[in-house]
Amino acid sequence: MGDITKVRGVVGGRGLMFLDWNLTQTTAVNGGITVREVATGSLDRYIRGYARDVRAYGLPIQILLFNGEFNGDWWYAVSPRANPSLSTADFVKAWRRVVNIFRAVGASNVSWAWVVNGYPSDPSQQPQIDRDIGSYYPGDEYVDWVGADVYDVGTPNWLDGPYAFAVAHSKPVWIGEFGIRHEWSILTPVQQRAWLEAMFDYFESHSAIKAVSYFNLNNRGAATHVKWDPSRDVFLYDGHVRYTPDLNDHDSRLLAGGPAIRAIFARRIASERYLSTVSTEAVESKSQPPAAVMLAPTFRGLTATLRWRGNLAADAYDVAVKRKTRPWRTVAKRLTSMSYGRKGTSGEGILVRVRPRDVFGSPGAWSSSRSVVYPRL
Q: Measured over all CA atoms, what is the biggest interatomic distance in the chain, rounded to whole angstroms?
């Protein structure tokens, strides 16, 4: 709760918290998490815990799930073009699973942002970008915002395809990232100023665009194309800020773009088009009750592995056993697995049932009981 209180204090009553919930650290060599693991349910418990904290926060949150630009060839954890072992079906299943878990926990204060990389009308200009964005789409009921990123390696009309997709699905458009000085840009400073003006012209002539986010970040550490020459750096604010002028080095900060860039941005963003009247208020939430069903046991000698399946709201389980006319007895509490080993005697019969608990610890109803008969040895 301490962290939640701190965040509330920063966001205040008129802000909206945005979370980039991504898998960017996964590479081909580090064995990190991919969308396939998420889709199989192996991360469910972590996701439920995260959703619990988001619900406790209570105020509206926008989440960019997994990674923006998933239709490119640079995110190994999410993109089939970067990781051939993945498919767009893995992406869709994982997305739906996360959203369904949040809903089961009652974290209804989230809007989900699905953000692609913009692309040119001519596929040959950017073959590393998958233009079939529909194959990644989880469905209208799972997406609140359709967005796109675009940098000065492209032109504003790279947004045309994602924009048309959003309008066709009746979704507001969010420009998740736009910026200058991309390391693969060939624009001069003068051309970058024209590009920035053209971007704002595009925003203001496309009414479905409801939010924009300039990528005001020095990402020079991720650059591979342009070498850093520290001798060219300019220092500001008693040496606390440094940048290389007139270089496309992945430092997209407005400050690094120079006074003319900052002046253009300040003038254009002052338009009433970008004045938000958003006021943050608490969001009501309602969780699903946890539920579970017993499955057929398996045996190894006189040890029965009792098994069950829980719904997405179920986070832990209590197990009870009944022998003949004796009362039910709880033999295990708050198990996080969905199986439990229980020894018996030759030919013995027992009844077993399981009670799920949600991520807050509240118990659901006991499942129907299942008869378990140990083999005669």
A: 87
Among 152-156, 157-161, 226-230, 359-363, name the one with the lowest average pLDDT.
226-230
Distances (CA, A) of 24 to 21, 76, 132: 9, 8, 22
Where do the structural domains in the chain lie, given as residue ranges? 2-274, 292-373
> Taking Cα atoms as reference points, which of 96, 130, 120, 5 lies closest to residue 57?
5
Q: For the domain 292-373, what is the CATH code?
A: 2.60.40.10
Query: How many beta carbons lie within 10 A of that of residue 226, not counting itself?
Result: 18
Q: How many CB atoms lie within 10 A of CB 317?
A: 25
Q: How far apart are CA 254 and CA 263, in angstroms?
A: 9
Helix, strand, or coil (residue 294):
strand
Q: Which of 137, 176, 140 is closest to 159 using CA atoms?
A: 176
Residues 344, 126: Cα–Cα separation, whole Å: 64
SS3 category, 305: strand
The candidate with the shortest Cα–Cα distance to 248, out of 219, 271, 274, is: 219
pTM of the full structure: 0.92
Q: What distance lies between CA 190 and its chain's CA centroid?
A: 36
Residue type, 91: F
Q: What angle do CA 262, 263, 264 make, to 5 degrees?
A: 95
Superfamily of domain 2-274: Glycosidases (3.20.20.80)
Spell out the residues 6+ positions from residue 149 whose beta carbon is closer than 8 angstroms to its own: 68, 69, 115, 116, 117, 118, 175, 176, 177, 178
Tell me the C-alpha to C-alpha distance, in Å, between residue 308 and each of 34, 148, 350.
26, 42, 16
Which pLDDT belongs to residue 120?
95
